[in-house]
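Hello,

I think I submitted the nicotinamide-adenine-dinucleotide job twice by accident. Can you confirm which output corresponds to this input? Input:
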Amino acid sequence: MHHDPSVTHTVGHLIDGQIVADAERTQPVFDPATGQATRSVALASKATVEAAIASAEAAFPAWRNTPPLKRARVMSRLKVLLEEHADQIAELITAEHGKVLADAHGELQRGIENVEYASYAPELLKGEYSRNVGPGIDSWAEHQALGVTAGITPFNFPAMVPLWMWPMAVACGNTFVLKPSERDPSSTLLIAQLALQAGLPPGVLNVVNGDKLAVDTLLQDARVKAVSFVGSTPIAEYVYTEGCRHGKRVQALGGAKNHAVLMPDADIANAVNALMGAAFGSCGERCMAIPLVVAVGDAAADAVVAGLKTAIAAMKVGPGTDNGNDMGPLVSRPHFEKVRAYVDSGVAEGATLVVDGRSLQVPGHEEGYFVGACLFDHVRPGMKIYQEEIFGPVLGVVRVQSLQEAMRLIDEHEYGNGTCIFTRDGEAARYFTDHIQVGMVGVNVPLPVPVAYHSFGGWKRSLFGDLHAYGPDAVRFYTKRKTVTQRWPSAGVREGAAYSFPSSR
Ligand code: NAD
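Support: Only one job matched these inputs. Its output is below.
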Protein backbone atom coordinates (compact mmCIF):
# COMPACT_ATOMS: atom_id res chain seq x y z
CA MET A 1 0.00 0.00 0.00
CA HIS A 2 1.59 3.28 -1.03
CA HIS A 3 1.81 6.10 1.42
CA ASP A 4 1.54 9.74 0.45
CA PRO A 5 4.21 11.66 2.40
CA SER A 6 2.10 14.84 2.33
CA VAL A 7 -0.44 13.12 4.55
CA THR A 8 0.34 14.00 8.12
CA HIS A 9 -2.77 13.22 10.11
CA THR A 10 -3.21 9.56 11.02
CA VAL A 11 -6.58 8.27 12.21
CA GLY A 12 -5.86 5.97 15.14
CA HIS A 13 -7.76 3.59 17.39
CA LEU A 14 -9.70 4.17 20.60
CA ILE A 15 -8.50 1.71 23.23
CA ASP A 16 -9.34 1.97 26.91
CA GLY A 17 -10.45 5.56 26.40
CA GLN A 18 -7.20 6.64 24.70
CA ILE A 19 -6.41 7.39 21.07
CA VAL A 20 -3.45 5.29 19.95
CA ALA A 21 -2.10 4.45 16.49
CA ASP A 22 -0.02 1.69 15.00
CA ALA A 23 2.98 3.18 13.23
CA GLU A 24 4.05 0.09 11.24
CA ARG A 25 1.08 -0.19 8.90
CA THR A 26 -1.04 2.70 7.64
CA GLN A 27 -2.95 3.40 4.45
CA PRO A 28 -4.20 6.63 2.88
CA VAL A 29 -7.77 7.90 3.18
CA PHE A 30 -8.99 9.74 0.07
CA ASP A 31 -11.41 12.55 -0.63
CA PRO A 32 -13.49 10.89 -3.37
CA ALA A 33 -14.47 14.28 -4.85
CA THR A 34 -10.86 15.22 -5.56
CA GLY A 35 -9.00 11.90 -5.60
CA GLN A 36 -6.50 13.35 -3.12
CA ALA A 37 -5.24 11.55 -0.03
CA THR A 38 -6.19 13.75 2.90
CA ARG A 39 -5.05 11.67 5.86
CA SER A 40 -4.02 8.13 6.66
CA VAL A 41 -5.49 5.43 8.84
CA ALA A 42 -3.57 3.14 11.17
CA LEU A 43 -4.07 -0.56 10.46
CA ALA A 44 -4.14 -2.49 13.72
CA SER A 45 -1.68 -5.29 14.40
CA LYS A 46 -2.80 -8.46 16.16
CA ALA A 47 -1.36 -7.08 19.41
CA THR A 48 -3.37 -3.85 19.05
CA VAL A 49 -6.62 -5.76 18.56
CA GLU A 50 -5.76 -7.98 21.52
CA ALA A 51 -5.19 -4.90 23.66
CA ALA A 52 -8.67 -3.67 22.69
CA ILE A 53 -10.21 -7.03 23.55
CA ALA A 54 -8.36 -7.06 26.90
CA SER A 55 -9.66 -3.57 27.67
CA ALA A 56 -13.23 -4.64 26.82
CA GLU A 57 -12.87 -7.73 28.96
CA ALA A 58 -11.58 -5.75 31.93
CA ALA A 59 -14.44 -3.25 31.64
CA PHE A 60 -17.13 -5.94 31.48
CA PRO A 61 -17.71 -6.92 35.15
CA ALA A 62 -18.42 -3.38 36.36
CA TRP A 63 -20.43 -2.44 33.26
CA ARG A 64 -22.63 -5.56 33.41
CA ASN A 65 -23.45 -4.68 37.04
CA THR A 66 -24.19 -1.03 36.26
CA PRO A 67 -27.98 -0.60 36.55
CA PRO A 68 -29.62 -0.66 33.11
CA LEU A 69 -31.11 2.80 33.66
CA LYS A 70 -27.63 4.27 34.22
CA ARG A 71 -26.38 2.57 31.07
CA ALA A 72 -29.40 3.93 29.22
CA ARG A 73 -28.73 7.47 30.43
CA VAL A 74 -25.38 7.38 28.64
CA MET A 75 -27.34 6.73 25.45
CA SER A 76 -29.71 9.63 26.15
CA ARG A 77 -26.73 11.96 26.61
CA LEU A 78 -25.06 10.58 23.49
CA LYS A 79 -28.19 11.32 21.46
CA VAL A 80 -27.94 14.98 22.45
CA LEU A 81 -24.20 15.12 21.73
CA LEU A 82 -24.71 13.56 18.30
CA GLU A 83 -27.35 16.16 17.49
CA GLU A 84 -25.04 18.95 18.65
CA HIS A 85 -22.15 17.60 16.53
CA ALA A 86 -24.27 16.63 13.53
CA ASP A 87 -22.67 19.13 11.13
CA GLN A 88 -19.15 18.06 12.04
CA ILE A 89 -20.01 14.36 11.71
CA ALA A 90 -21.76 14.86 8.37
CA GLU A 91 -18.77 16.83 7.04
CA LEU A 92 -16.44 13.95 7.94
CA ILE A 93 -18.74 11.44 6.24
CA THR A 94 -18.85 13.52 3.07
CA ALA A 95 -15.10 14.18 3.11
CA GLU A 96 -14.24 10.46 3.13
CA HIS A 97 -17.29 8.72 1.63
CA GLY A 98 -18.33 11.34 -0.91
CA LYS A 99 -22.11 11.35 -0.35
CA VAL A 100 -23.97 14.67 -0.39
CA LEU A 101 -24.10 16.42 3.01
CA ALA A 102 -27.89 16.25 3.28
CA ASP A 103 -27.68 12.49 2.75
CA ALA A 104 -24.91 12.22 5.37
CA HIS A 105 -27.24 14.02 7.80
CA GLY A 106 -29.96 11.50 6.88
CA GLU A 107 -27.73 8.53 7.69
CA LEU A 108 -26.70 10.12 10.98
CA GLN A 109 -30.31 10.76 11.93
CA ARG A 110 -31.20 7.10 11.32
CA GLY A 111 -28.19 6.18 13.47
CA ILE A 112 -29.33 8.51 16.26
CA GLU A 113 -32.71 6.74 16.25
CA ASN A 114 -30.86 3.53 17.19
CA VAL A 115 -29.18 5.36 20.09
CA GLU A 116 -32.62 6.55 21.14
CA TYR A 117 -33.93 2.96 21.01
CA ALA A 118 -30.95 1.80 23.10
CA SER A 119 -31.99 4.32 25.76
CA TYR A 120 -35.17 2.18 26.26
CA ALA A 121 -32.97 -0.79 27.24
CA PRO A 122 -34.27 -1.09 30.84
CA GLU A 123 -37.77 -1.66 29.47
CA LEU A 124 -36.50 -4.10 26.83
CA LEU A 125 -34.44 -6.11 29.33
CA LYS A 126 -37.20 -6.66 31.90
CA GLY A 127 -37.63 -10.35 31.15
CA GLU A 128 -40.46 -12.69 32.08
CA TYR A 129 -41.79 -13.86 35.42
CA SER A 130 -44.20 -16.63 36.42
CA ARG A 131 -45.39 -17.13 39.96
CA ASN A 132 -46.41 -20.56 41.25
CA VAL A 133 -45.17 -22.69 38.36
CA GLY A 134 -45.33 -25.45 40.98
CA PRO A 135 -46.17 -25.55 44.67
CA GLY A 136 -44.29 -22.61 46.15
CA ILE A 137 -42.11 -22.43 43.04
CA ASP A 138 -41.53 -19.25 41.03
CA SER A 139 -39.69 -18.97 37.75
CA TRP A 140 -38.25 -16.13 35.74
CA ALA A 141 -36.28 -15.64 32.54
CA GLU A 142 -33.73 -12.86 32.24
CA HIS A 143 -31.50 -11.51 29.51
CA GLN A 144 -27.86 -11.65 30.59
CA ALA A 145 -25.05 -9.85 28.81
CA LEU A 146 -22.62 -11.98 26.80
CA GLY A 147 -19.33 -10.27 27.63
CA VAL A 148 -17.05 -8.88 24.93
CA THR A 149 -18.91 -8.43 21.64
CA ALA A 150 -17.57 -7.13 18.32
CA GLY A 151 -18.77 -5.36 15.18
CA ILE A 152 -17.28 -5.13 11.69
CA THR A 153 -18.81 -2.52 9.42
CA PRO A 154 -18.80 -1.40 5.73
CA PHE A 155 -17.77 1.87 4.14
CA ASN A 156 -21.17 2.93 2.88
CA PHE A 157 -22.71 4.00 6.21
CA PRO A 158 -19.75 4.89 8.45
CA ALA A 159 -22.00 6.53 11.07
CA MET A 160 -25.27 4.59 10.86
CA VAL A 161 -24.21 0.94 10.63
CA PRO A 162 -21.88 1.06 13.68
CA LEU A 163 -24.80 2.72 15.52
CA TRP A 164 -26.97 -0.28 14.56
CA MET A 165 -24.65 -2.38 16.68
CA TRP A 166 -22.76 -1.07 19.66
CA PRO A 167 -25.40 1.16 21.36
CA MET A 168 -27.73 -1.82 21.84
CA ALA A 169 -24.82 -4.14 22.69
CA VAL A 170 -23.54 -1.87 25.47
CA ALA A 171 -27.02 -0.87 26.66
CA CYS A 172 -27.60 -4.62 27.19
CA GLY A 173 -24.51 -4.70 29.45
CA ASN A 174 -21.84 -5.95 27.04
CA THR A 175 -18.57 -4.33 26.15
CA PHE A 176 -17.62 -3.87 22.51
CA VAL A 177 -14.77 -3.80 20.01
CA LEU A 178 -15.68 -2.06 16.74
CA LYS A 179 -13.70 -2.56 13.52
CA PRO A 180 -15.05 0.06 11.10
CA SER A 181 -14.29 0.40 7.41
CA GLU A 182 -10.73 1.57 6.85
CA ARG A 183 -11.89 3.62 3.87
CA ASP A 184 -13.81 6.28 5.84
CA PRO A 185 -12.87 5.92 9.52
CA SER A 186 -13.10 9.49 10.88
CA SER A 187 -16.82 9.99 11.56
CA THR A 188 -16.98 6.59 13.27
CA LEU A 189 -14.09 7.44 15.58
CA LEU A 190 -15.53 10.86 16.44
CA ILE A 191 -18.84 9.26 17.44
CA ALA A 192 -16.99 6.82 19.73
CA GLN A 193 -15.20 9.75 21.37
CA LEU A 194 -18.57 11.44 21.91
CA ALA A 195 -19.76 8.27 23.65
CA LEU A 196 -16.90 8.64 26.13
CA GLN A 197 -17.91 12.26 26.63
CA ALA A 198 -21.48 11.07 27.25
CA GLY A 199 -20.19 8.99 30.15
CA LEU A 200 -19.38 5.60 28.68
CA PRO A 201 -16.54 4.25 30.87
CA PRO A 202 -13.20 3.64 29.12
CA GLY A 203 -12.98 0.13 27.68
CA VAL A 204 -16.74 -0.36 27.26
CA LEU A 205 -16.41 0.70 23.61
CA ASN A 206 -13.08 0.27 21.82
CA VAL A 207 -12.47 1.07 18.16
CA VAL A 208 -9.72 -0.58 16.14
CA ASN A 209 -9.12 0.50 12.58
CA GLY A 210 -7.68 -2.11 10.30
CA ASP A 211 -8.18 -4.76 7.68
CA LYS A 212 -8.40 -8.56 7.42
CA LEU A 213 -5.77 -9.01 10.13
CA ALA A 214 -7.92 -7.15 12.68
CA VAL A 215 -11.05 -9.03 11.59
CA ASP A 216 -9.35 -12.41 11.83
CA THR A 217 -8.02 -11.58 15.30
CA LEU A 218 -11.56 -10.77 16.48
CA LEU A 219 -12.94 -13.95 14.91
CA GLN A 220 -10.34 -16.22 16.47
CA ASP A 221 -10.07 -14.76 19.98
CA ALA A 222 -12.00 -16.84 22.52
CA ARG A 223 -12.75 -13.75 24.64
CA VAL A 224 -15.05 -12.37 21.90
CA LYS A 225 -18.48 -13.96 22.39
CA ALA A 226 -20.49 -12.51 19.51
CA VAL A 227 -19.80 -10.79 16.20
CA SER A 228 -22.07 -8.56 14.14
CA PHE A 229 -20.94 -7.99 10.56
CA VAL A 230 -22.28 -5.85 7.72
CA GLY A 231 -20.56 -5.83 4.33
CA SER A 232 -20.36 -7.77 1.08
CA THR A 233 -21.67 -11.33 0.80
CA PRO A 234 -18.35 -13.16 0.29
CA ILE A 235 -16.89 -11.55 3.42
CA ALA A 236 -20.17 -12.00 5.34
CA GLU A 237 -20.11 -15.71 4.57
CA TYR A 238 -16.46 -15.93 5.60
CA VAL A 239 -17.08 -14.07 8.88
CA TYR A 240 -20.10 -16.25 9.62
CA THR A 241 -18.30 -19.53 8.94
CA GLU A 242 -15.08 -18.52 10.67
CA GLY A 243 -16.86 -17.00 13.69
CA CYS A 244 -19.15 -20.03 14.14
CA ARG A 245 -16.15 -22.36 13.80
CA HIS A 246 -14.68 -20.53 16.79
CA GLY A 247 -17.86 -21.01 18.81
CA LYS A 248 -19.22 -17.48 18.52
CA ARG A 249 -22.69 -16.18 17.95
CA VAL A 250 -22.60 -14.44 14.55
CA GLN A 251 -24.98 -12.31 12.50
CA ALA A 252 -23.49 -11.38 9.12
CA LEU A 253 -25.41 -9.13 6.75
CA GLY A 254 -24.29 -9.21 3.12
CA GLY A 255 -24.91 -7.71 -0.29
CA ALA A 256 -28.06 -7.15 -2.27
CA LYS A 257 -29.64 -6.75 -5.69
CA ASN A 258 -33.01 -5.24 -4.91
CA HIS A 259 -35.75 -5.42 -7.52
CA ALA A 260 -38.66 -3.00 -7.74
CA VAL A 261 -41.75 -4.34 -9.49
CA LEU A 262 -43.64 -1.79 -11.55
CA MET A 263 -47.23 -2.89 -12.15
CA PRO A 264 -49.15 -1.61 -15.20
CA ASP A 265 -51.58 0.29 -12.95
CA ALA A 266 -48.87 2.13 -10.94
CA ASP A 267 -48.65 5.90 -10.67
CA ILE A 268 -45.69 6.19 -13.06
CA ALA A 269 -44.66 9.74 -12.14
CA ASN A 270 -44.53 8.79 -8.47
CA ALA A 271 -42.60 5.60 -9.27
CA VAL A 272 -40.06 7.54 -11.35
CA ASN A 273 -39.40 9.96 -8.48
CA ALA A 274 -39.10 7.12 -6.01
CA LEU A 275 -36.76 5.17 -8.29
CA MET A 276 -34.48 8.17 -8.91
CA GLY A 277 -33.70 8.48 -5.19
CA ALA A 278 -33.54 4.72 -4.63
CA ALA A 279 -31.24 4.04 -7.58
CA PHE A 280 -28.99 7.09 -7.52
CA GLY A 281 -29.05 8.42 -3.95
CA SER A 282 -25.63 7.95 -2.34
CA CYS A 283 -24.41 7.06 -5.86
CA GLY A 284 -26.14 3.68 -5.58
CA GLU A 285 -23.86 2.69 -2.69
CA ARG A 286 -26.65 1.44 -0.42
CA CYS A 287 -27.53 -2.16 0.36
CA MET A 288 -31.19 -1.11 0.08
CA ALA A 289 -30.70 0.73 -3.25
CA ILE A 290 -32.88 -0.31 -6.17
CA PRO A 291 -30.64 -1.21 -9.14
CA LEU A 292 -33.35 -3.17 -11.03
CA VAL A 293 -36.87 -2.30 -12.11
CA VAL A 294 -39.01 -5.20 -13.27
CA ALA A 295 -41.71 -3.64 -15.43
CA VAL A 296 -44.85 -5.67 -16.02
CA GLY A 297 -45.96 -5.10 -19.60
CA ASP A 298 -44.26 -3.05 -22.30
CA ALA A 299 -46.44 0.03 -21.73
CA ALA A 300 -45.20 0.36 -18.11
CA ALA A 301 -41.62 -0.31 -19.25
CA ASP A 302 -41.74 2.30 -22.03
CA ALA A 303 -43.27 4.88 -19.68
CA VAL A 304 -40.78 4.34 -16.86
CA VAL A 305 -37.76 4.40 -19.22
CA ALA A 306 -38.98 7.68 -20.73
CA GLY A 307 -39.63 9.18 -17.29
CA LEU A 308 -36.27 8.10 -15.90
CA LYS A 309 -34.42 9.41 -18.96
CA THR A 310 -35.95 12.86 -18.47
CA ALA A 311 -35.29 12.87 -14.73
CA ILE A 312 -31.66 11.80 -15.17
CA ALA A 313 -31.08 14.66 -17.61
CA ALA A 314 -32.08 17.08 -14.82
CA MET A 315 -29.82 15.50 -12.18
CA LYS A 316 -26.90 17.43 -10.71
CA VAL A 317 -23.72 15.50 -10.03
CA GLY A 318 -20.80 17.04 -8.16
CA PRO A 319 -19.00 17.20 -4.85
CA GLY A 320 -21.06 16.16 -1.83
CA THR A 321 -20.08 19.32 0.02
CA ASP A 322 -22.62 21.18 -2.17
CA ASN A 323 -26.17 20.30 -1.12
CA GLY A 324 -27.32 21.52 -4.52
CA ASN A 325 -25.97 18.28 -5.99
CA ASP A 326 -28.15 15.20 -6.13
CA MET A 327 -25.27 12.75 -6.32
CA GLY A 328 -21.62 12.75 -5.30
CA PRO A 329 -18.70 10.55 -6.37
CA LEU A 330 -18.11 6.86 -5.79
CA VAL A 331 -15.97 5.95 -2.79
CA SER A 332 -12.64 4.99 -4.36
CA ARG A 333 -10.66 4.77 -7.59
CA PRO A 334 -10.86 0.92 -7.76
CA HIS A 335 -14.62 1.04 -7.18
CA PHE A 336 -14.99 3.75 -9.85
CA GLU A 337 -13.20 1.48 -12.32
CA LYS A 338 -15.25 -1.54 -11.29
CA VAL A 339 -18.57 0.27 -11.80
CA ARG A 340 -17.53 1.50 -15.26
CA ALA A 341 -16.46 -2.03 -16.19
CA TYR A 342 -19.95 -3.27 -15.24
CA VAL A 343 -21.47 -0.74 -17.63
CA ASP A 344 -19.09 -1.93 -20.38
CA SER A 345 -20.17 -5.53 -19.69
CA GLY A 346 -23.86 -4.62 -19.90
CA VAL A 347 -23.29 -3.13 -23.36
CA ALA A 348 -21.23 -6.16 -24.43
CA GLU A 349 -23.95 -8.56 -23.22
CA GLY A 350 -26.60 -6.81 -25.28
CA ALA A 351 -28.59 -4.63 -22.86
CA THR A 352 -29.63 -1.25 -24.28
CA LEU A 353 -27.71 1.62 -22.66
CA VAL A 354 -30.31 4.42 -22.68
CA VAL A 355 -28.25 6.88 -20.60
CA ASP A 356 -24.45 6.57 -20.44
CA GLY A 357 -22.84 8.28 -17.45
CA ARG A 358 -19.36 6.93 -18.06
CA SER A 359 -17.90 10.04 -19.65
CA LEU A 360 -19.25 12.51 -17.08
CA GLN A 361 -16.77 15.23 -16.11
CA VAL A 362 -17.21 17.52 -13.11
CA PRO A 363 -15.29 20.74 -13.85
CA GLY A 364 -12.57 21.36 -11.29
CA HIS A 365 -12.89 17.76 -10.05
CA GLU A 366 -11.30 15.85 -12.90
CA GLU A 367 -9.54 13.47 -10.51
CA GLY A 368 -12.71 12.77 -8.49
CA TYR A 369 -14.44 9.38 -8.74
CA PHE A 370 -17.57 10.65 -10.51
CA VAL A 371 -19.77 8.46 -12.68
CA GLY A 372 -23.02 9.86 -14.03
CA ALA A 373 -26.31 8.00 -13.68
CA CYS A 374 -26.57 5.10 -16.14
CA LEU A 375 -29.83 3.57 -17.36
CA PHE A 376 -30.14 0.22 -19.14
CA ASP A 377 -33.26 -1.15 -20.81
CA HIS A 378 -33.80 -4.80 -21.84
CA VAL A 379 -31.68 -6.20 -19.02
CA ARG A 380 -32.07 -9.99 -18.78
CA PRO A 381 -31.33 -12.57 -16.08
CA GLY A 382 -27.94 -14.14 -16.68
CA MET A 383 -26.29 -10.85 -17.61
CA LYS A 384 -23.59 -9.77 -15.15
CA ILE A 385 -25.38 -6.44 -14.62
CA TYR A 386 -28.49 -8.43 -13.60
CA GLN A 387 -26.78 -11.04 -11.47
CA GLU A 388 -24.13 -9.10 -9.53
CA GLU A 389 -24.25 -6.24 -7.06
CA ILE A 390 -22.73 -3.22 -8.84
CA PHE A 391 -23.03 -0.76 -5.93
CA GLY A 392 -23.01 2.22 -8.27
CA PRO A 393 -25.43 4.55 -10.10
CA VAL A 394 -26.55 1.96 -12.64
CA LEU A 395 -30.27 1.20 -13.00
CA GLY A 396 -31.52 -1.60 -15.23
CA VAL A 397 -35.03 -2.21 -16.54
CA VAL A 398 -36.15 -5.82 -17.01
CA ARG A 399 -39.30 -6.43 -19.04
CA VAL A 400 -41.75 -9.17 -18.03
CA GLN A 401 -45.41 -9.93 -18.82
CA SER A 402 -46.89 -10.81 -15.41
CA LEU A 403 -46.54 -10.32 -11.66
CA GLN A 404 -45.86 -14.07 -11.33
CA GLU A 405 -42.94 -13.77 -13.74
CA ALA A 406 -41.55 -10.77 -11.82
CA MET A 407 -41.85 -12.63 -8.52
CA ARG A 408 -40.16 -15.72 -9.94
CA LEU A 409 -37.16 -13.59 -10.99
CA ILE A 410 -36.88 -12.09 -7.52
CA ASP A 411 -37.21 -15.44 -5.77
CA GLU A 412 -34.59 -17.04 -8.01
CA HIS A 413 -32.01 -14.33 -7.34
CA GLU A 414 -29.28 -15.22 -4.84
CA TYR A 415 -29.94 -12.08 -2.78
CA GLY A 416 -33.08 -11.26 -0.84
CA ASN A 417 -32.41 -8.03 1.02
CA GLY A 418 -35.12 -5.58 -0.04
CA THR A 419 -37.78 -5.25 -2.69
CA CYS A 420 -40.71 -3.02 -3.53
CA ILE A 421 -43.87 -3.05 -5.60
CA PHE A 422 -45.40 0.02 -7.24
CA THR A 423 -49.12 -0.51 -7.76
CA ARG A 424 -52.62 0.79 -7.02
CA ASP A 425 -53.93 -2.77 -6.67
CA GLY A 426 -54.21 -3.84 -3.03
CA GLU A 427 -54.76 -7.48 -3.91
CA ALA A 428 -51.56 -7.63 -5.96
CA ALA A 429 -49.63 -5.81 -3.23
CA ARG A 430 -50.89 -8.16 -0.53
CA TYR A 431 -50.07 -11.24 -2.60
CA PHE A 432 -46.58 -9.84 -3.23
CA THR A 433 -45.80 -8.96 0.40
CA ASP A 434 -47.14 -12.33 1.58
CA HIS A 435 -45.20 -14.60 -0.81
CA ILE A 436 -42.01 -12.86 -1.91
CA GLN A 437 -38.78 -14.45 -0.59
CA VAL A 438 -37.21 -11.20 0.58
CA GLY A 439 -36.69 -9.87 4.11
CA MET A 440 -37.74 -6.23 3.70
CA VAL A 441 -40.63 -5.31 1.43
CA GLY A 442 -42.01 -1.94 0.37
CA VAL A 443 -45.40 -1.11 -1.12
CA ASN A 444 -44.96 2.14 -3.04
CA VAL A 445 -42.03 2.71 -0.63
CA PRO A 446 -38.76 2.27 -2.51
CA LEU A 447 -36.36 2.00 0.47
CA PRO A 448 -38.23 -0.06 3.07
CA VAL A 449 -35.49 0.27 5.70
CA PRO A 450 -37.11 -0.69 9.01
CA VAL A 451 -37.19 2.02 11.68
CA ALA A 452 -35.02 1.59 14.79
CA TYR A 453 -37.78 -0.13 16.79
CA HIS A 454 -38.17 -2.88 14.18
CA SER A 455 -35.25 -5.02 13.01
CA PHE A 456 -33.28 -4.99 9.76
CA GLY A 457 -32.34 -8.05 7.77
CA GLY A 458 -32.48 -9.69 4.38
CA TRP A 459 -33.12 -13.30 3.41
CA LYS A 460 -31.15 -15.82 1.35
CA ARG A 461 -27.52 -14.79 0.77
CA SER A 462 -28.14 -11.29 2.12
CA LEU A 463 -27.91 -12.50 5.74
CA PHE A 464 -26.07 -15.35 7.43
CA GLY A 465 -27.43 -16.20 10.85
CA ASP A 466 -30.98 -15.86 12.10
CA LEU A 467 -31.47 -12.72 14.17
CA HIS A 468 -31.72 -9.43 12.31
CA ALA A 469 -29.83 -6.24 13.12
CA TYR A 470 -30.96 -3.62 15.66
CA GLY A 471 -34.46 -3.23 17.14
CA PRO A 472 -36.01 -6.06 19.19
CA ASP A 473 -33.74 -8.70 17.61
CA ALA A 474 -30.69 -6.86 19.02
CA VAL A 475 -31.82 -7.65 22.58
CA ARG A 476 -31.92 -11.33 21.63
CA PHE A 477 -28.62 -11.22 19.78
CA TYR A 478 -26.63 -9.38 22.46
CA THR A 479 -27.99 -11.31 25.46
CA LYS A 480 -28.35 -14.90 26.53
CA ARG A 481 -31.43 -16.08 28.28
CA LYS A 482 -31.17 -17.49 31.76
CA THR A 483 -34.22 -19.13 33.30
CA VAL A 484 -34.28 -19.51 37.06
CA THR A 485 -36.70 -21.81 38.90
CA GLN A 486 -36.80 -21.10 42.64
CA ARG A 487 -38.34 -22.55 45.73
CA TRP A 488 -37.84 -21.60 49.35
CA PRO A 489 -38.73 -24.70 51.34
CA SER A 490 -41.24 -24.01 54.08
CA ALA A 491 -43.46 -26.16 56.29
CA GLY A 492 -46.31 -26.37 53.79
CA VAL A 493 -44.32 -27.39 50.73
CA ARG A 494 -41.54 -29.58 52.06
CA GLU A 495 -41.48 -32.80 50.02
CA GLY A 496 -39.81 -36.16 50.15
CA ALA A 497 -37.47 -37.44 47.42
CA ALA A 498 -39.25 -37.75 44.05
CA TYR A 499 -37.80 -39.95 41.30
CA SER A 500 -40.25 -39.30 38.52
CA PHE A 501 -39.98 -36.24 36.31
CA PRO A 502 -41.59 -33.16 37.91
CA SER A 503 -44.78 -32.09 36.14
CA SER A 504 -48.03 -30.26 36.84
CA ARG A 505 -50.18 -33.36 36.42
P1 NAD B 1 -16.59 -5.26 2.48
O1 NAD B 1 -17.18 -6.63 2.61
O2 NAD B 1 -15.49 -5.06 1.52
O3 NAD B 1 -16.02 -4.77 3.90
C1 NAD B 1 -16.80 -4.85 5.07
C2 NAD B 1 -15.85 -4.99 6.25
O4 NAD B 1 -15.12 -6.22 6.14
C3 NAD B 1 -14.83 -3.87 6.37
O5 NAD B 1 -14.69 -3.51 7.72
C4 NAD B 1 -13.56 -4.51 5.83
O6 NAD B 1 -12.40 -3.99 6.41
C5 NAD B 1 -13.72 -5.96 6.19
N1 NAD B 1 -13.06 -6.86 5.23
C6 NAD B 1 -12.85 -6.64 3.91
N2 NAD B 1 -12.22 -7.68 3.35
C7 NAD B 1 -12.04 -8.60 4.32
C8 NAD B 1 -11.44 -9.90 4.35
N3 NAD B 1 -10.94 -10.47 3.25
N4 NAD B 1 -11.43 -10.56 5.52
C9 NAD B 1 -11.95 -10.03 6.63
N5 NAD B 1 -12.51 -8.78 6.66
C10 NAD B 1 -12.56 -8.09 5.51
O7 NAD B 1 -17.82 -4.28 2.18
P2 NAD B 1 -17.76 -2.73 1.80
O8 NAD B 1 -17.28 -2.60 0.40
O9 NAD B 1 -17.11 -1.93 2.86
O10 NAD B 1 -19.32 -2.37 1.86
C11 NAD B 1 -20.20 -2.57 0.80
C12 NAD B 1 -20.95 -3.86 0.92
O11 NAD B 1 -21.68 -3.90 2.14
C13 NAD B 1 -21.99 -4.06 -0.16
O12 NAD B 1 -21.94 -5.40 -0.59
C14 NAD B 1 -23.30 -3.77 0.54
O13 NAD B 1 -24.44 -4.39 -0.01
C15 NAD B 1 -23.02 -4.30 1.88
N6 NAD B 1 -23.90 -3.73 2.87
C16 NAD B 1 -24.88 -4.51 3.38
C17 NAD B 1 -25.76 -3.99 4.30
C18 NAD B 1 -26.84 -4.83 4.88
O14 NAD B 1 -27.44 -4.40 5.83
N7 NAD B 1 -27.12 -6.02 4.36
C19 NAD B 1 -25.64 -2.65 4.71
C20 NAD B 1 -24.62 -1.88 4.18
C21 NAD B 1 -23.76 -2.44 3.26
